[in-house]
Amino acid sequence: MKYWWFQMANVLGDSSGRETICRVTGGMKVKADRDESSPYAAMLAAQDVATRCKELGITALHIKIRATGGNGTKTPGPGAQSALRALARSGMKIGRIEDVTPTPSDSTRRKGGRRGRRL
């Protein structure tokens, strides 16, 4: 089984990538809008994915982590590490951990204008 951690959502799919078995976001776990992208929400979402895996009899996962990429940030957010830790603590065997963030060879212009973001 493959497990994807995107910037906002935990997605569990089969190894071919065609079928989605489970999809949990941080916004489904917390009530406040500001907490949707927090490490705590990511941990709760990963625990939900782990319980769904155990129901289906899945014991091992290959993990793909994806940040925004392109013009956005190329590093995964703070929730990725806590989601990984929650999966490992729940008893799942972790095979490969792979970063699949799209990195452009030559990007389009970033926002902010010529003088940049002024505070």
UniProtKB/TrEMBL annotation:
<feature type="compositionally biased region" description="Basic residues">
    <location>
        <begin position="110"/>
        <end position="119"/>
    </location>
</feature>
<keyword id="KW-0687">Ribonucleoprotein</keyword>
<dbReference type="GO" id="GO:0005840">
    <property type="term" value="C:ribosome"/>
</dbReference>
<dbReference type="Pfam" id="PF00411">
    <property type="entry name" value="Ribosomal_S11"/>
</dbReference>
<feature type="region of interest" description="Disordered">
    <location>
        <begin position="96"/>
        <end position="119"/>
    </location>
</feature>
<keyword id="KW-0689">Ribosomal protein</keyword>
<dbReference type="InterPro" id="IPR036967">
    <property type="entry name" value="Ribosomal_uS11_sf"/>
</dbReference>
<comment type="similarity">
    <text>Belongs to the universal ribosomal protein uS11 family.</text>
</comment>
<dbReference type="GO" id="GO:0003735">
    <property type="term" value="F:structural constituent of ribosome"/>
</dbReference>
<dbReference type="GO" id="GO:1990904">
    <property type="term" value="C:ribonucleoprotein complex"/>
</dbReference>
<dbReference type="InterPro" id="IPR001971">
    <property type="entry name" value="Ribosomal_uS11"/>
</dbReference>
<dbReference type="InterPro" id="IPR018102">
    <property type="entry name" value="Ribosomal_uS11_CS"/>
</dbReference>
<protein>
    <recommendedName>
        <fullName>40S ribosomal protein S14</fullName>
    </recommendedName>
</protein>
<dbReference type="GO" id="GO:0006412">
    <property type="term" value="P:translation"/>
</dbReference>
